[in-house]
Amino acid sequence: MKSRITFRSLVFALATLPLAAGLSAADAKPTVEVAFVLDTTGSMGGLLEGAKRKIWSIATATADSNPDADIRMGLVAYRDIGDDYVARKVDLTTDIQDLYAQLLELKARGGGDWPESVNEALDVAVNKMQWSKGGDVRRIVFLVGDAPPHMDYAQDTKYPVTLSVAKQKDIIVNAVLAGNAQDTARIWRDIAQHGNGRFIPIPQDGGEVVLIETPFDEEIIILQREINGTVIPYGPKQLQKRTEGKTKQLSEVAAAAPAQASEMASYLNKRARATSEAVTGDGDLVADVTAGRSSFSAIKDEDLPDNLRAMKPEQRVEEVNKQMTQRKALNEKLAALVASATNTSPSSAPRRRRRLLRSTAPSRTR
Q1: pLDDT of the residue at 346
Q2: Exposed, middle or buried by CB within 10 Å (0-12, 13-18, 19+), for 274?
Q3: Under CATH, which number does the domain 9-210 receive?
Q4: Of 219, 220, 169, 221, the residue nearest 195 (C-alpha)
Q5: Phi, psi of 178 (to 5 degrees)
Q6: What's the pLDDT at 354?
Q7: pLDDT recorded at residue 149
Q8: Which residues of the chain have pLDDT under 70?
Q9: How would you list the strands of the sheet with 70-78, edge to edge?
Q10: Burial class, 300, CB count within 10 angstroms (exposed 0-12 / middle 13-18 / buried 19+)
Q11: What is the pLDDT of residue 58?
Q12: What pLDDT, on a 0 to 100 scale, did the predictor assign at position 214?
């Protein structure tokens, strides 16, 4: 029977993994690609919920270490044959908000016997993800699970073969062990060694990490909401609707978890310096015009929102310029606030940095 991961130190470990894997400012590259291969069977509920809460911390840590890099993140959720799915892929993307929305849909279920379809999941991550080509890309996989692979599935490409391909593609594979199963630990160490990565055990008695909210969270969220108000959705109607939905995502997250919404805003602000984005992905006219990715001359009238279509050409330019100027000013204010929250010393009162407190609550098993 699988052990149940009930502590929140998993969340803290996930938040610091990109840095621990060597993504330092000194060797930052133009593109950083990170794929998470997550066991989503029933025993992994605590870790999965932690990943949902901490994805923005992970993204921000990567952006901090690689401020000039194009950051793409992806996900392979895996279970076992006989479950709802064996391996479900969310391909590498710069649209972290879309990745987050899909992560929210994942539930920890299934997994009847002990081994899982780890071989299939790694094969999908290494061979079916759309990794960028070229030598100026840092490619990283984090395998996270508590159970060993099924080595008896004849149809599977076994992990040693997959790791050989990963080496050829310059993909680093790290293995994060949730729990303390010795049979899993042995294989996870082997995967890390042959994947040129790290074996990262997360002990079950690691205690619970509690996120302390601060007054800065509210201020950061308010500013990001104002920045979201400068978004002008454009393109096909479906894309406009999706872009508009992303402007509301922050408020939806903030209603349940202000600290998490603050992390989201911090990431968006850091990326705005390079991309001019208020939301991740395509569909924001202000960001695309500011960054030179689009121009009014190349946009069809039917791809403009109703309010812009009703304007004269010169008025459209004025409106975009107005939102562009407002966004720049708001992002500068938000950047100063984020920097202040990050750089304030731990001894300051009141504490402006978010604190992680480790409890001594014992772990439980089932």
Answers
A1: 43
A2: middle
A3: 3.40.50.410
A4: 169
A5: -95, 110
A6: 40
A7: 95
A8: 1-29, 112, 203-215, 342-366
A9: 87-93, 70-78, 31-39, 137-145, 171-178, 196-202
A10: exposed
A11: 80
A12: 57
Q: In this structure, which amino acid lies at residue 353?
A: R
* 196 beta partners: 173
* Phi/psi of residue 18, nearest 5 degrees: -60, -40
End-to-end CA distance of the chain: 7
pLDDT tens readout for residues 231-273: 999 999 999 999 999 999 998 888 878 888 888 999 999 888 8
Q: What is the pLDDT of residue 349?
A: 37
For residue 30, the model assigns a pLDDT of 76
State both tokens at 361: 């609550």
Q: What is the pLDDT of residues 57-92, one digit of tens each?
A: 788 888 888 777 889 999 999 999 989 999 999 999
337 contacts 219 by C-beta, under 8 angstroms: yes
The structural domains of the chain, with segments of one domain joined by +, span 9-210, 213-343
Residue 52 CB coordination number (10 Å): 17
Q: What pLDDT is attached to residue 13? A: 46
Name the residue among 14, 24, 5, 97 with its Cα closest to residue 57: 14
